[in-house]
């Protein structure tokens, strides 16, 4: 096992470590021993032969990853499987999968017996740089993304970079969408780093933000950079566009909108597109989706406050990135019209 990097997430009532590197999954037995766990439910879409031995009695709960399975029905299925496995509040759930598995299983862990320990083994780049860290768990409704959820911090996160070796190109792109937007929220330009260093930098930034604002009362809003339009694109395309791809377009849009509002200069606007393009990410809107549809979906975004007062975005500006309410819908529609349209990135 090569050197594994550790990032500590320090919260008021709960601390945990994120381990990043080749072979990080092999730390699972030691982590569970330290937690004093008697048995676990190992929830994953992977075949059992590819799952790490947790070192304690375990039950494998099979899942299907993907946004279409990120539902309350899936949460109920997992919780019933936990009952069948005999899990008590002294036990734990291990979520091994992508971002949708992390979110959905995390919510199930938060609700089962009013909360049991969860350890995340994220297997995609998106999950490693974002979804597995920070304690946000949620599922989708037909009306929008992540509308039902809870804050439930993991007890540990093991980001084994070996999982990334066989990821399809579009899965890697989805993770790069989150890495690209980090340039505008405090991580700096990560393009010159190798992938492990990009993951560590992204997680380190997120850990510092979450430590200051665990429950989105202020500074944590910056982590939603590019996500207001991004979530709308996902929903409007019935998730044919991946999360990170949509966030990449949302990041370009955030730069254009901030420029139109006079919050940033022309060079900073251009930097948004340059960084997103350098990762091979899309900078265009999905074809066939009316701007009015995207505006309506953005109006439902969970960051929105008084919907009669306009839209709410996280935008760059002279004081740095901050939450900006009251953006006129006509202006947002005009900025959307400045973006070209096209198909989703091609699959492998």
Q: What secondary-structure arrangement, pairings included, does this model have?
A:
Layout: E1 5-10, E2 15-21, H1 28-35, E3 40-44, E4 58-62, H2 72-85, E5 92-97, H3 99-111, E6 117-122, H4 125-131, E7 136-141, E8 144-151, E9 156-160, H5 169-181, H6 195-212, H7 227-236, H8 243-260, H9 266-278, E10 285-286, H10 291-299, E11 311-315, E12 322-327, H11 329-337, E13 341-342
Parallel strand pairs: 2-9, 3-4, 3-5, 5-6, 6-9, 10-13
Antiparallel strand pairs: 1-2, 7-8, 11-12
Describe the 3D structure:
With 348 residues, this protein is α/β, with parallel strands linked by helices. It has 2 domains: 5-167 and 186-206, Rossmann fold; 225-342, Dehydroquinate synthase-like, alpha domain. Helix content is 38%, strand content 20%. The chain has helices spanning 28-35, 72-85, 99-111, 125-131, 169-181, 195-212, 227-236, 243-260, 266-278, 291-299, 329-337, and strands spanning 5-10, 15-21, 40-44, 58-62, 92-97, 117-122, 136-141, 144-151, 156-160, 285-286, 311-315, 322-327, 341-342. The strands form 4 sheets. Strands 1-2-9-6-5-3-4 form a 7-stranded mixed β-sheet, sandwiched between helices. The chain has a two-stranded antiparallel sheet with strand order 7-8. Strand 11 (311-315) and strand 12 form a beta hairpin. Helix 2 packs across helix 3 and helix 4 (125-131) runs parallel beside helix 5. The protein starts with a strand and ends in a 6-residue tail after the last strand. The model has no long low-confidence stretch (mean pLDDT 94).
């Amino acid at each position: 096992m090569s050197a594994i990097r550790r990032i500590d997430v320090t919260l008021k009532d709960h601390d945990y470590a994120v381990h990043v590197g080749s072979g990080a999954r092999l730390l699972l037995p030691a982590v569970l021993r330290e937690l004093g766990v008697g048995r676990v439910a190992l929830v994953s879409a992977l075949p059992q032969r590819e799952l790490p031995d947790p070192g304690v009695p375990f039950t494998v709960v099979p899942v299907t990853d993907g946004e279409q399975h990120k539902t309350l029905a899936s949460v109920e299925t997992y919780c019933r499987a936990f009952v069948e496995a005999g899990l008590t509040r002294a036990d734990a759930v291990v979520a091994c999968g992508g971002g949708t598995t992390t979110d959905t299983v995390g919510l199930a862990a938060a609700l089962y017996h009013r909360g049991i320990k969860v350890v995340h083994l994220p297997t995609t780049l998106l999950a490693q740089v974002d979804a597995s860290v920070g304690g946000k768990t949620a599922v989708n409704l037909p009306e929008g993304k992540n509308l039902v959820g809870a804050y439930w911090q993991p007890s540990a996160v093991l980001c084994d970079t070996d999982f990334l070796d066989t990821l399809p190109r579009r899965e890697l792109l989805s993770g790069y969408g989150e890495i690209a937007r980090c340039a505008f929220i405090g991580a700096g330009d990560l393009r010159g780093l190798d992938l492990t260093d990009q993951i560590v930098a992204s997680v380190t930034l997120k850990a510092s933000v979450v430590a200051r604002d665990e429950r989105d009362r202020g500074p944590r809003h910056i982590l939603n950079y590019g996500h207001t339009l991004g979530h709308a694109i996902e929903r409007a395309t019935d998730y044919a566009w991946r999360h990170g791809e949509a966030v990449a377009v949302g990041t370009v849009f955030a730069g254009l909108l901030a420029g139109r509002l006079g919050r940033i200069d022309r060079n900073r606007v251009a930097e948004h597109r340059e960084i997103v393009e350098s990762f091979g990410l899309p900078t265009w809107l999905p074809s066939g989706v009316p701007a009015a549809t995207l505006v309506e979906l953005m109006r439902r975004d969970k960051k929105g406050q008084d919907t009669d007062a306009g839209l709410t975005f996280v935008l760059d500006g002279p004081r740095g990135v901050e939450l900006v309410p009251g953006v006129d819908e006509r202006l947002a529609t005009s900025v959307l019209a400045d973006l070209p349209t096209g198909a989703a990135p091609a699959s492998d």
